[in-house]
């Protein structure tokens, strides 16, 4: 990753951030270690790096944001990722959430709707030792050519559970997605119990940018 150096000071700020997330209720030590390992400041333009280790979202252009670290940790914890899991992320954005996923499994596929963000993030992540498989397109339709997936993570708010994503889950696999209207969504965890049966758990409220695409907000 061609970006700012990761200094002792940055690592200390990440340790402080991890402790803050632990206080806020994140319990999975592997997820906390992943947050602690990814240099979030490298996903910010040079003039804004002082904001990197605050627990808040931040604009990255193109009407998108880099997610709040708590949100990244919360969604990742719900996925319960194993080291061999094949994971699909809908909404690559800055690539920060994708980089956290890569700390937990090397098998990460990610799709971004916005071509400008896709090009920028593809360049940023190209230098990783184990880069993800990145795609530009309609994430609401998933990646049927690479399905099935053990875990699917959606980083944008959807009006419903997108049927294409449900169909691309392996039996026993989990989908984590914010579902609601344009201003508020509730985090939903769906498990595919069998070919035709899904269980659904509704959790905390969040606010995400809208999921664009045919099975999202259009």
Describe it.
The protein is of the alpha/beta class and 218 residues long. The protein has a single domain (8-206), classed as Rossmann fold (3-Layer(aba) Sandwich), CATH 3.40.50.150. It is 27% helix and 25% strand. It has helices spanning 8-23, 29-37, 69-79, 96-102, 115-125, 163-167, and strands at 58-61, 64-66, 87-90, 108-112, 133-136, 149-154, 169-180, 185-192, 198-206. The strands form two sheets. The protein has a seven-stranded mixed beta sheet. Strands 1-2 form a two-stranded antiparallel ribbon. Helix 6 links the parallel strand 6 and strand 7 (169-180). It starts with 7 loop residues before the first helix and ends in a 12-residue tail after the last strand. The mean pLDDT is 95.
SSE topology:
Blueprint: H1 8-23, H2 29-37, E1 58-61, E2 64-66, H3 69-79, E3 87-90, H4 96-102, E4 108-112, H5 115-125, E5 133-136, E6 149-154, H6 163-167, E7 169-180, E8 185-192, E9 198-206
Parallel strand pairs: 3-4, 3-6, 4-5, 6-7
Antiparallel strand pairs: 1-2, 7-8, 8-9
Helix pairs in contact: 1-2
Short description:
With 218 residues, the protein is an alpha/beta fold. Helix content is 27%, strand content 25%.
At the fold tier of CATH, the topology name is Rossmann fold
Q: What is the number of E strands?
A: 9
The proportion of strand residues reads 25-35%
Total of helices = 6
Helix content: 25-40%
Low-confidence stretches: none
Question: Could you report the average pLDDT, rounded to the nearest whole number?
Answer: 95
The ordered H/E elements are: HHEEHEHEHEEHEEE
CATH architecture, please? Answer: 3-Layer(aba) Sandwich
Our Rg estimate from Cα atoms comes to 16 Å
- Text of the CATH class: Alpha Beta
What number of structural domains do the residues give?
Answer: 1
Give the overall form: globular
Q: Cα distance, first to last residue?
A: 33 Å
Widest β-sheet, arrangement of strands = 5-4-3-6-7-8-9
> How many strands, what sense, and barrel or not for the largest sheet?
7 strands, mixed
Structural class: alpha/beta
What is the CATH homologous superfamily assignment?
Answer: Vaccinia Virus protein VP39
């Amino acid at each position: 990753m061609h970006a700012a150096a990761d200094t002792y000071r940055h690592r200390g700020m990440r340790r402080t951030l991890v402790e803050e997330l632990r206080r806020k209720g994140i319990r999975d030590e592997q997820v906390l270690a992943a947050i602690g390992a990814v240099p979030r400041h490298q996903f910010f333009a040079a003039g804004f790096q002082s904001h990197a280790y605050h627990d808040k979202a931040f604009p990255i252009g193109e009407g998108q944001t880099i997610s709040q670290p708590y949100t990244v940790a919360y969604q990742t914890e719900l996925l319960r990722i194993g080291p061999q899991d094949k994971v699909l992320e809908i909404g690559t954005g800055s690539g920060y959430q994708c980089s956290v996923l890569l700390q937990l499994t090397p098998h990460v596929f990610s799709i971004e709707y916005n071509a400008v963000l896709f090009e920028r993030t593809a360049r940023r992540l190209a230098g990783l030792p184990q880069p993800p498989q990145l795609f530009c397109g309609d994430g609401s339709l998933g990646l049927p050519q690479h399905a099935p997936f053990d875990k699917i993570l959606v980083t944008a708010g959807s009006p419903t559970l997108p049927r294409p994503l449900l169909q691309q889950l392996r039996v026993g696999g989990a989908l984590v997605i914010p579902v609601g209207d344009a201003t508020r969504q509730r985090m939903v965890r769906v498990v595919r119990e069998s070919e035709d049966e899904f269980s659904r758990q509704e959790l905390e409220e969040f606010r995400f940018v809208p999921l664009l695409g045919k099975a999202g907000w259009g």
